[in-house]
From TrEMBL:
The keyword Hydrolase applies. CDD domains: Lipase_3. Residues 334-346 have a biased composition (Polar residues). It comes from Brassica napus. The gene is BnaAnng08480D. This is BnaAnng08480D protein.
């Protein structure tokens, strides 16, 4: 009996010790789904945070105060700033991950209240091309597909692969609406770009399509994790109506729910099931917090100021930048050519 008592106490000690890192991970799922990697998540949330920086000079040179930690040494290849639609993204290479990183900015916080209100009423309104019965949110789809963002991103990915090799991984991330754009980007790279090594990780993203779309997406981009935070309101939007499963918005897997445990003074991660709508994860609580939406793992995911769609850039960066007639901006830098000869400019003739 005494031995059993000590075994029980030891088990409790090991359990409590596992909390000291701030996480409890279900690292392996019950099926063939990819493993969840906490360290990679902590890295990508920093990339998702950096895209909110308005000083494009610091972002381009990766010297901003959010360009530290796990992301040191990152090389920005291209920054896209679409002033017409208030969108921002960047593409670069993380040599430590052997990966191209693509990051999309979310909705700026000055307008998030109105944006959330609109999402309550938003209906599925676009048939996704060549996917039977798949419907998606027109606004999220268009933000990626029908702006300056898509051609700039795809062009930067192509040039990065020419320089760093065709087998380099591609990791796409974003927060809030940026997560929705990351979803369409990852799918685009697989379906239209023929890419195989694509991973997507989003933070606080809304639902983007119906159940049919979620099924197609999870099949085509299986290396995907949606991180949700406690009572974050945005992953609950647009609403999911369980009485109309095929006609309503539906998340794709795999959700990782980050819960704040006040009694333990840290957060716990739970890898959810493969349905996309696990009732024991974020759907088990009310989505009523904007503050939970703006911070993940202690990392701020919003702009530093509340100014609408504004940027700062030094004149010395003009040689890297190009604008179109609407003020949309692309900043590109040179990268080593594959044969080691003189570097080539990343600014190509095109729409901009």
């Amino acid at each position: 009996m005494g031995r059993r008592k000590w075994v029980f106490l030891l088990a409790i000690f090991v359990f409590l010790l596992s909390f000291s890192s701030g996480t409890v991970l279900k690292l392996k799922s019950d099926d063939s789904r990819p493993l969840y990697n906490h360290t990679l998540t902590m890295t990508l949330v920093e990339y998702a945070s950096a895209v909110y920086m308005s000083d494009l000079s610091e972002l381009f040179n990766w010297t901003c105060k959010r360009c530290n930690g796990f992301t040191k040494g990152f090389e920005v290849i291209e920054i896209i700033f679409d002033v017409e639609h208030c969108l921002q993204a960047y593409v670069g290479v993380a040599k430590d991950l052997n990966a191209i990183i693509i990051a999309f900015r979310g909705t700026q916080e000055h307008s998030i209240q109105n944006w959330v209100s609109d999402l309550f009423w938003k209906q599925l309104d676009l048939n996704y091309p060549d996917m039977s019965d798949a419907m998606v949110h027109h606004g999220f789809y268009s933000a990626y597909h029908n702006t300056t963002v898509r051609p700039a991103v795809l062009g930067a990915v192509k040039r990065a692969k020419e320089s760093y090799g065709p087998n380099i991984n591609i990791m796409v991330t974003g927060h809030s609406m940026g997560g929705a754009m990351a979803t369409f980007c990852g799918l685009d790279l697989v379906v239209n770009g023929g890419e195989e090594n694509v991973q997507v990780m989003t933070f606080g993203q809304p639902r983007v399509g119906n159940a049919a779309f979620a099924s197609y997406y999870s099949l085509l981009v299986p290396k995907t994790f949606r991180i949700t935070h406690d009572h974050d309101i945005v992953p609950h939007l647009p609403p999911y109506y369980n009485h109309f499963p095929q006609k309503t918005y539906h998340h794709f897997p795999t959700e990782v729910w980050l819960r704040d445990v006040s009694s333990l003074n840290h957060s716990v991660e739970k890898v959810c099931d493969n349905t996309g709508e696990d009732p024991t994860c974020s759907r088990s609580v009310k989505g009523n917090s904007i503050s939970d939406h703006l911070r993940y793992f202690g990392v701020e995911l919003h702009c530093e100021t509340w100014r609408q769609c504004s940027i700062v850039m030094s004149h010395e960066m003009d040689r890297f930048s190009k604008k179109d007639s609407k003020g949309n901006l692309i900043m590109s830098r040179t990268v080593p050519s594959t044969n080691g000869n003189k570097t080539e400019s990343l600014i190509e003739n095109g729409d901009l």
